[in-house]
């Protein structure tokens, strides 16, 4: 159907419930094999959890849809073994430029500093991401995927959810301890349970055109306010894989979506934009509206909502799929602990509170961008245009230009899972912060985050790892001897830690600077790479208390 | 003192993890203040706002600089 990509067709297999005429019971069922449901399934199955993933379709995303995958999402994908194919196939970029009329008024660089493995953003058509995730999922023996399995009813009590599933061979019933709803913005499961999602619809329409062309524009995000080729509206240009370019035209609320999708309307718009006789082909066209809304809470007894099913934002800022992947990152380790009986079910309340906080931040930022891009009153437009004009000469106004604040992880500073600081620290790696990456040697990769797996980790800094006392080494190694193991990693300027402890060498000093490390400094890190606690000296009892706090065992 | 045209917005007691946050906080509050007003009411609100802020700044030489920059696009 597309010129640059052939949709795979996944096999439907008659489910065992229909073959053997029984009703199966599962520890976890995930509904929806989009980026978020697949991430959740892979993350759990890679930890040895048995998972059933249901999807009503038998292929990947139709159309390119979500295009921008942020650094944080790539780091999560890295942990699941899917980051590299996305980065290799996609277009990495860090710089965004904003134009007003004919001139550039503002640019930003998503990379705050050098010395991070992943770029600020990778542009990749959503079908490639889903394709890679399905390939990864197939490597996991604990993960069963059932395509053409459509959920038609859900009921729950305090112990389990009962799910009715329709297939080409008829319907069957299954029960599950935990049901993860990753079934998208219209979430049929949300509706089946009669749950509300509140927010607002924006009165505007946008045209997406994916265009195949050879062009030597740099790999940057270009955004125009009121360009000569599309007056009074905005335009956004992104480069994707396979020489496909995403062009996004603001149309206004009164535009006719059906008429605007026709090639005879789309092609002249693109020709006016390109301004030359460059050849191009249309790959995919769509007209969309959007809303910003979220559920009041994301966990409802035995049913857990993730991604668009739980919250939706405007597309300016790429905060949709990226925040969904972070939902999965936040939920997977907590759900695994609850299933294994190592944490109380109330730990899942923190999934809801932390990700509601993140969703509010995403909605706030994308709403602000939308209000700047599409002013709702004459006064609002006058301020917007004054900012854009002043931005050409005055730095303060550049800081106010808002063409999208791109997806970054939330600093969960108010989380009940954090242990507050007792000691003084400089920098941004406060309890609740998402970990900064840094270059290292001696690890599994050349990067700090490459050594972070699905366990809790303790980073302990000394100048010379070889000089660590036997007693200290024993205390660090002993952190693993617990049902909720903490994997200790010694960070040092030189040397190798005794007793087989993992050692990372901070050869460039980036870790020392970013984490404000002094000899003795210890950071407790959650499986989702947020800081749980930190101290200037190692105290195993304090580490254990902080782990208990971070896992709801209080 | 001369007119400061570098980014200068912040809120006491608030910690920012993204450079754009203080400016966006302000801009949202500014636009929200105009919510539901007619164009005439908005113009009157802006006049009141400028008078209040000018008095707060106090230094008329700074205000003259700002007035000149604000006027610039309309000078022919």
Report on the architecture of this protein.
Chain B: This is DUF2783 domain-containing protein. Chain B: It holds the Pfam family DUF2783. Chain B: It comes from Diaphorobacter limosus. The complex is a heterodimer of chains A (554) and B (76). By secondary structure, chain A is α/β, with parallel strands linked by helices. Chain A has 15 helices and 26 strands. In chain A, strands 1, 2, 8, 9, 10, 11, 19 and 20 form an 8-stranded mixed β-sheet that branches. In chain A, α3 packs parallel to α9 (321-339). Chain A is globular, with a radius of gyration of 25 Å. The N and C termini of chain A lie far apart (55 Å). Chain B has a domain at 38-76. Chain B has helices at residues 21-33, 39-57, 60-71. Chain B is globular. The model of chain B has no long low-confidence stretch (mean pLDDT 96). The A-B interface holds A 365, 368, 371-372, 377-380, 383, 387, 389-390, 394-400, 402, 405, 408, 411, 413, 428, 433 and B 4-9, 15, 17-20, 23-24, 26-28, 30-31, 34, 37, 39, 42-43, 46, 69, 73.
Which features characterize this protein?
heterodimer, A: 554 residues, FAD/NAD(P)-binding domain, Glutaredoxin, eight-stranded mixed β-sheet, 28% helix, globular, B: 76 residues, mainly alpha, DUF2783 (chain B), DUF2783 domain-containing protein (chain B)
Short overview:
The complex is a heterodimer of chains A (554) and B (76). Chain A is an alpha/beta fold. Helix content of chain A is 28%, strand content 26%.
């Amino acid at each position: 159907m597309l010129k640059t990509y052939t949709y795979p067709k996944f096999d439907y297999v008659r489910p065992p419930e229909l073959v053997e005429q029984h009703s199966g019971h599962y520890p976890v069922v995930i509904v929806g094999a989009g980026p978020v449901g697949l991430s959740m399934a892979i993350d759990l199955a890679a930890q040895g959890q048995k998972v059933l993933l249901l999807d009503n379709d038998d292929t990947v995303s139709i159309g390119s849809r979500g295009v921008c995958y942020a650094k944080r999402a790539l780091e999560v994908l890295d942990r699941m073994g899917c980051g590299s194919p996305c980065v290799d196939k996609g277009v990495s970029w860090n710089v965004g430029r904003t134009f007003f009329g004919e001139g550039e008024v503002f640019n930003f660089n998503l990379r705050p500093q050098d010395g991070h493995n992943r770029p600020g953003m990778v542009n990749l058509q959503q079908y490639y991401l889903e394709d890679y995730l399905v390939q990864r999922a197939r490597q996991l023996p604990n993960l069963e995927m059932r395509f053409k399995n459509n959920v038609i009813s859900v009921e729950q009590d305090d112990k389990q959810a009962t799910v009715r599933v329709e297939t080409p061979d008829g319907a069957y019933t299954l029960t599950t301890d935990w049901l993860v709803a990753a079934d998208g913005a219209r979430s049929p499961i949300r509706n089946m349970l009669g749950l509300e999602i509140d927010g607002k619809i924006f009165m505007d329409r946008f045209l997406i055109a994916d265009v195949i062309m050879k062009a030597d524009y740099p790999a940057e995000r270009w955004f125009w306010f009121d360009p000569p080729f599309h007056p009074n509206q905005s335009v956004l240009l992104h480069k994707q894989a396979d020489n496909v370019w995403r062009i996004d035209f603001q149309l206004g609320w009164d535009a006719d979506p059906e008429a605007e999708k026709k090639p005879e309307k789309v092609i002249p718009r693109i020709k006016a934009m390109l301004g030359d006789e460059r050849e191009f082909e249309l790959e995919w066209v769509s007209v969309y509206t959007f809303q910003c809304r979220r559920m009041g809470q994301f966990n409802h007894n035995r049913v857990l909502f993730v991604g668009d099913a739980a919250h939706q934002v405007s597309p300016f800022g790429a905060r949709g799929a990226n925040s969904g992947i972070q939902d999965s990152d936040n939920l997977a380790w907590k759900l695994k602990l609850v299933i294994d009986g190592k944490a109380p079910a109330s730990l899942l309340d923190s999934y809801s509170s932390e990700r509601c906080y993140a969703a509010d931040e995403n909605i706030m930022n994308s709403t602000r961008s939308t209000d700047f891009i599409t002013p709702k009153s004459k006064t609002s437009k006058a301020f917007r245009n004054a900012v854009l004009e002043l931005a050409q000469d005055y730095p303060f106004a550049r800081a106010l230009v808002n063409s999208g604040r791109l997806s970054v992880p939330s600093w969960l500073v108010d989380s009940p899972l954090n242990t507050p600081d007792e000691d003084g620290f400089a920098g941004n790696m406060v309890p609740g912060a998402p970990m900064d990456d840094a270059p290292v040697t001696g690890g599994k990769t050349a990067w700090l985050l490459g050594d972070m797996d699905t366990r809790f980790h303790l980073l302990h800094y000394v100048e010379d790892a070889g000089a660590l006392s036997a007693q200290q080494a024993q205390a660090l190694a002993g952190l693993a001897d617990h049902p909720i193991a903490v994997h200790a990693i010694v960070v040092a300027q030189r040397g190798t830690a005794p007793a087989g402890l993992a050692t990372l060498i901070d050869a460039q000093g980036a870790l020392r600077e970013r984490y404000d490390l002094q000899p003795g400094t210890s950071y407790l890190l959650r499986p989702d790479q947020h800081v749980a606690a930190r101290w200037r000296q190692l105290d195993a009892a304090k580490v254990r208390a902080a782990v208990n706090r971070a896992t709801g065992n209080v | 003192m001369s007119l400061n045209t570098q980014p200068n917005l912040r809120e006491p007691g608030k910690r920012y993890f993204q450079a754009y946050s203080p400016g966006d906080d302000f801009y949202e509050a500014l636009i929200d203040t105009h919510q539901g007003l007619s164009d005439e009411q908005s113009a009157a609100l802006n006049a009141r706002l400028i008078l209040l802020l000018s008095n707060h700044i106090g230094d008329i030489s700074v205000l003259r600089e700002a007035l000149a920059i604000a006027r610039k696009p309309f000078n022919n």
